[in-house]
User: What shape does this take?
Amino acid sequence: MTVVRFAPSPTGLLHVGNARTALLNWLFAKKLSGKFLLRIDDTDAARSTKAFEEAIYRDLSWLGLTHDGTDRQINRLAIYSTAFYKLQAVGRIYPCFETEAELERQRSLLAARKLPPVYNRASLEPANKAKWEAEGRKPHWRFKLSRSKVSWTDLVRGPVEIDTATMSDPVLVREDGAFLYTLPSVADDIDMAISHVVRGEDHVTNTAAQIEIFEALGGPVPKFAHFPLLVGASGEALSKRLGSLSLEQLRGDGVEPMAVASYLAKIGTSDPVEPRLTLGELATEFDFAKIGRAPAHFVPDELTALNARLLHITPYSAVAGHVPQGEAFWDAIKPNLTKLSDVAEMARLVSGPVTPVIEDAGLAAKAAALLPSEPWDENTWGVWTKAVSAETGAKGRGLFHPLRLALTAQEHGPELKKLLPLIGRERSLARLEGKTA
Assistant: This one.
């Protein structure tokens, strides 16, 4: 069975980059009738908070990304300890005693010689180990890479090969005994039977080390898919703007969750960026082969435009709880909406109060006199304006613009053939007479 996971850290709000990772995992799993697991990476006790954890659940629920199981890494420390001792037993993890200052000095010397900053394994020298232990230093623990080539077929990038001789042995456990990201991630993926790891391409190099850890622990190696990261409109990094691109902020700005999902699912792919009404539609259309190798450009104005396009195709049944004015009202106004919050202003055009703008008093007076009796429907506008035109000789903009200003006080807006029956004869007459109604 296809099983994927999303493993956010509760150290901040989910932003669009996190959301895209969660979404692509969810779409891939659901297309194959698989499972989407949520794993809270809260081993960093100093930075993790319950408030941010609750925000993760809230944001994923808002997007509609339901999970099939969840756990917190802080509850799984025994699993990581077991994995640690297993690596120790097979000689693939070793203690290191250098201070951060000493490691930085080593990196500086390598840089001066134009060599990659690969840890020199000085702690494996018995004399060094004995000396540093005698000084009472506490070790951190590194995984011993094979220093050979690791390869896999990436579902996005194709064949990938990385020589681990160009990498430092990754630190798995800090001096204080705290587990860092790598070992818990691999141990969890084995324990949770994760079949595919879907994440950003900034993890490609990490994958080589993680494959070796999977193999050292005797676990099955999942398949990998590394997609390009999001960048801004001009290719700039989004890191300085993530606060304004959090899901909480987008929700507060009135962006629809399916607009966010549609946008994040389609940018950077060969598909056109178009709104979809359900996640199921997006899942059906999802394919790793459609994801390009270039970074995906996140442009807030494009998301705003897509949000409007989504509302324009949204059926009344999907918004009935937010639009008590009814289906006829929704059909009249939705082509003019940018955000659902615009409904309140559109409702005011119907129920008032509207202070009319009388551009042509003579035309307005004649139009008022020619108002037909109710009941009204969408044909009323055409019949009425034809009569006004015949009476006054006004045509085109000279006819329609003064009537729109008188009825709505707006230069633009919903089609008046649909709006007029909703305004009704009493309010229409009052507005044509220059009265606030």
